[in-house]
Design a protein that fits this description.
Blueprint lengths: L18 H26 L14 H8 L8 E3 L5 H6 L4 H8 L33 H17 L10 E6 L6 H13 L3 E7 L2 E2 L2 E2 H4 L15 E6 L3 H16 L5 E6 L17 H8 L3 H11 L5 H24 L17
Parallel strand pairs: 1-2, 2-3, 3-7, 6-7
Antiparallel strand pairs: 4-5
């Protein structure tokens, strides 16, 4: 088996959080996990089509970063593994599910599907099917925030952008070009590398000359940090620090979150390339189980509260499926709509 980093070089001190914050993070992670489990069920029942890439195991990264941001104000840019980023950004579960069903009530009105979630209202800049495709988009969003604030003197333009992408994207040219521009212009952006160790079937350590992605920040003179992506509190702490730096005009941060996907690359992947021992090691570090134990140990919540959240989220997802199943298909007369901007 390829030698892997299993613990980050840097783990931040845990910030004290309130019970409300703890339950918010827990609820968001449970929402992501149960939503994706339902997606797998619906896919295999023939309710969804095409490629569907699930996020199971990586919930601490999405919740830890996005829940540290300002809801409906800061920008989030995703990848083709985008359902949970959309949920963390506040897109209602029923709209995400309807989009996966290809219905007119979906967040992209049935035109995007699994890999192209978008919501202007929630500042979700989209999911992107091509690897690294979202990095320039997110960099542009960060640039417009800075331009509006400094050139147009709009003091309200202090939005921060979070750009998510995988370890495979870090070997693409867009990654390096955008890091260079972001550092040069001190853009308010977090580049969040979800290093789940595998780019489809290619082990990360076999694909890059410098496996420690966060160290690549040094080449551009920007701040880089490695964090345990299976620990939502660690991610949340690092994200808050990076967001504060960005909002204060101190520029971008490259965050490498060491995480792991519990399922294959997509639901069409038999997942035969990863060893059983590797999967068992990471499954034992389930971020939701780990955080639930932390909340109880720190007396931030009790088991009954957590079980109540589990039931609430399951009911929300069941309702999302009912909504998606009963929603209308897009009207054929609108086939050519949204190709061009409308007045």
């Amino acid at each position: 088996m390829v030698q892997e980093r299993t613990l980050p070089v840097f783990q931040p001190n845990y910030a004290s959080i309130s019970p409300a914050e703890g339950l918010k993070l827990y609820e968001d992670m449970v929402l992501g996990r149960l939503f994706e489990d339902k997606c797998a069920e619906m896919y295999y029942r023939g309710k969804m089509f095409g490629f569907v890439h699930l996020y199971n195991g990586q919930e601490a990264v999405s919740s830890g970063v996005i829940k540290a941001m300002r809801p409906d104000e800061d920008y989030v840019c995703s990848t083709y593994r985008d359902h949970v980023h959309a949920l963390s950004a506040g897109v209602p579960a029923k709209e995400v599910m309807a989009e996966l069903f290809g219905k007119a009530t979906g967040c992209s009105q049935g035109r995007g599907g699994s890999m192209h979630m978008f919501s202007a209202a929630h500042k979700l800049l989209g999911g992107y099917a091509f690897v690294a495709e979202g990095i320039p988009v997110a960099t542009g969003a960060a640039f417009q925030s800075k331009y509006r604030r400094e050139a147009l003197k709009d003091e309200s333009a202090d939005q921060v952008t979070a750009c998510f992408f995988g370890d495979g994207a870090c070997n693409n040219g867009q990654f390096y070009e955008c890091l260079n521009m972001a550092a040069l212009w001190k853009l308010p952006i977090l580049y969040v590398v979800e290093n789940n160790k595998w780019a489809i079937g290619m082990a990360h350590e076999r694909a890059t000359s410098v496996p420690e992605i966060y160290q690549k920040a040094a080449a551009f003179g920007l701040h880089g940090v490695e964090v345990d992506g299976m620990d939502v509190m660690a991610v949340y702490t690092v994200a808050k620090e990076a967001i504060a730096r960005a909002r204060a005009g101190e520029g971008p941060t490259l965050i490498e979150a060491l995480t792991y996907r519990f399922r294959g690359h997509s639901l069409a992947d038999p997942d035969e390339l990863r060893s059983k021992s590797e999967k068992e090691f990471w499954l034992a570090r389930d971020p939701i189980t780990k955080f639930a134990a932390y909340l109880v140990e720190q007396k931030l919540a009790d088991k009954d509260e957590l079980k109540a959240i589990d039931r609430k989220i399951q009911a929300e997802i069941d309702e999302a499926v009912r909504f998606a199943e009963t929603s209308p298909e897009p009207d054929p007369s609108e086939l050519h709509r949204y190709i061009f901007a409308e007045d």
